Amino acid sequence: MRPSTHCSAQDSAPAAIASFQAITTAEFDALFEQLVAGDFQARWDLAKQFPDLGKVAIAPLIWQLHYGDLDTEARWFIIRILGKFNQPAVVAAIAKLMVQTDETELSEIAASTLAEMGPTAVAALTDLLDQPEQRPLAARALAKIRSVSTIEPLLKIAVDPEPALRSLAIEALGSFHDPRVTPILLGALADPDSQPQREAVAALGRRPDLLPRYDLLAALTPCLANPNLPVSTAAAVSIGRLGSRDSSQTGSKAAVQVLGESLLHPARSESLQVAAVRALGWIEHSLALDYLSRVLTKDLDLAESAIAVRCEAVGALSQFTQPELQAAAAADLLNYLEQPAFREQPLVLKQAVVLGLARLNATQAADSLIRHLDETEPRLRLHIIAALRQLVPQTAPQRLRQQLQQPDLSAKLKAGLEDGLKFW
């Protein structure tokens, strides 16, 4: 049986809800039961009638929103209905649900409803900031309402003594292209806590529009040396994003140099090296290609176990889009494939190189790939055959047969060539 639609001061509801005068009108009861039982269209039509009941409907709707045995869709409609009552208690109730629910759909409709309520909702939540027990709730709610009217209170929260609240505000402010926000983001790079720092670093990486006016590269570069790994890796990502969006070759090259120097630094962690390599792959510049190639040729002081860095470098090399860079990347991967040391590499790295050559349409690698069919690992053979089918689908069978006719074939290569022919 569903809970009664009535509520009273004795119900187990917060004081803010219980303080409303309970209602028992048959009109409300009938409407609510239809709302609960109806399909989407019926609920849509019924929702338009609740505001006609006036403020007397607010208390039971709030109670049902938080404590009723309702499905997600019914709660969704209650939020929409409550949004028609521009009252502080409604704002608080919707804000509470928005920050406490695990259901994305409810959180999103709550945020959009509060945004539609406009200045009243923002003013009510801003007033709650002055109440210590309500401040975290109000701050989280304001951070989710992406409306220009929230910028002013968010700017105040951005200097809150509590790091978690500063972090919320900075993350939210990062979505606004407002001149008041930029100094806050830049200042947060020196925040004593790493969480607001990381949010500021990430936000600035999404603001290439600021490049003509601010030296964001100079501001973000020190963050690469931050001992907090989330901050330093976020800095690598942001520098890569800005470098890829910088319209000037000078700016792109400067970003590459900063990332490359970080990659060369012996004290950098493997996670940061992976982030730097990935970021270099976003910047279409010959110098970026040079750094990525050096990862494979072991010019860098990388540990032998740093396979993740090398795999990331292979993936980055295979994603260049400019023809001249693609050709150079293909040549570098082919050179790596042909080195004797390549055969000693882990399977995951070998597979990455084969896949990278296929992505780059490196048809010149076909003969070298065929010679690597002597690999005993079945998965690598399958990768090589798939690459041949992509690179030279018409001539691969003939090449395989010609190779089979060569004298002094090893048993492993013969088996690999015969396996390859089975796919044609």
UniProtKB/TrEMBL annotation:
<keyword id="KW-0042">Antenna complex</keyword>
<dbReference type="GO" id="GO:0016491">
    <property type="term" value="F:oxidoreductase activity"/>
</dbReference>
<protein>
    <submittedName>
        <fullName>HEAT repeat domain-containing protein</fullName>
    </submittedName>
</protein>
<dbReference type="GO" id="GO:0030089">
    <property type="term" value="C:phycobilisome"/>
</dbReference>
<dbReference type="InterPro" id="IPR004155">
    <property type="entry name" value="PBS_lyase_HEAT"/>
</dbReference>
<keyword id="KW-0605">Phycobilisome</keyword>
<dbReference type="InterPro" id="IPR016024">
    <property type="entry name" value="ARM-type_fold"/>
</dbReference>
<dbReference type="Pfam" id="PF13646">
    <property type="entry name" value="HEAT_2"/>
</dbReference>
<dbReference type="InterPro" id="IPR011989">
    <property type="entry name" value="ARM-like"/>
</dbReference>
